[in-house]
Amino acid sequence: MKKLSEIFNISIENETIFRQALTHPSYTKEHELDYALSYERLEFLGDAVLKLAISDILYKKYPDYPEGNLSKIRSIVVSDAALFEISEKLGLADLIILGRHEEKQGCRKLESVCACSFEAILGAYYLDGKFPELIEFIKEIFTPYIEDVDKNFEKFNAKALLQEYTQGRTKTVPEYRIVNETGPAHNKTFEVEVWYENECIAQGAGKSKKEAEQKCAYEACQKLGITKCQK
Questions:
Q1: Which residues have a catalytic role annotated?
Q2: Collapsing DSSP states into helix, strand and coil, what is residue 180?
C-alpha cells in the first residue's frame, strides 16, 4: 500500500479495496476466496472513471474538435496497449497479486492484466473518496500521451486508416497474419504480415499482436502513400 500510494501520490484510507484492486482472479480461485474479491468489479468502475477523466481533458484541451475526433483519440488513449505502457512506467506490474501458476507463466507482464489492474486501482481511489486528486493524477500522466496521439494520429490509428483506404478502393479489408513468435510466454515478440489482394504489402513486429499489427499497418500506409489522416 505504501508503494502504491507513492506511485499515485495519493493517500490511501481503505486498504481493503486497494488489495482487491491488485488481486488477479487466479489468486482468489487458488485460495478458494469469493470471486468478488478479485479486481474485476473495480475494473468495471475504474474504466468509467478513466473515460470520464479523459473525456473531460479532451473536451477542454481541443475546443474546436468535433465529437468524432475526440472519440477516436479517447479510444486510443484508454486502450489496453496505452494502459500497459503507462503501468510499466509507473511500476504497477510488480504489485499485482497472482496465483502461483500465473506467476510462473509471467502473467504480471501481460498487457491485459496490467491494464485491468490499473483501471481497478482507479476504481478503488474513486471509492476511497479521492476523485479530485485522481482527476489531477490522470491529467498529469495522460496529457503527454494525449498530445502524442493527436500529433501522430495516423501512426496510432493506422489499422483503421488502412482499412478505410482498402475498402474505399475494392470493398475488401486487409488480412493480418502472424508469421512468427519468439521469446518466453511472458515476453514474446510477434512478427506479422498484412496481406491485401493476395499480396503481402508490409511487415511489422511488436511485444503484443495488437502492437505488431499496428506497426505493420503503419508501414503499409507509408508504402501506399496514405500520409494524411482524416480524424
A1: 47, 119
A2: strand
The DSSP-derived string for 55-124 is HHHHHHH-TT--HHHHHHHHHHHTSHHHHHHHHHHHT-GGG-B--HHHHHTTGGG-HHHHHHHHHHHHHH
| Rounded CA separation 4/124 (Å) | 12
Contact between 65 and 58 under an 8 Å Cβ cutoff? The reply is yes
How far is Cα 148 from Cα 165, in angstroms, rounded to an integer?
A: 23
- pTM value > 0.85: no
For residue 183, the Cα-to-chain-centroid distance in whole angstroms is 22
CATH number for the domain formed by residue range(s) 158-224:
3.30.160.20
Per-residue pLDDT of the chain (231 residues; tens, 9 = 90+): 999 999 999 999 999 999 999 999 999 999 999 988 999 999 999 999 999 999 999 999 999 999 999 999 999 999 998 999 999 999 999 999 999 998 888 888 888 999 999 999 999 999 999 999 999 999 999 999 999 999 888 788 888 889 988 988 888 899 999 999 998 777 788 999 999 988 999 999 988 888 889 889 989 988 888 865 444
Domain residue ranges in the chain: 2-151, 158-224
- 2-151 belongs to CATH 1.20.1260.10: no
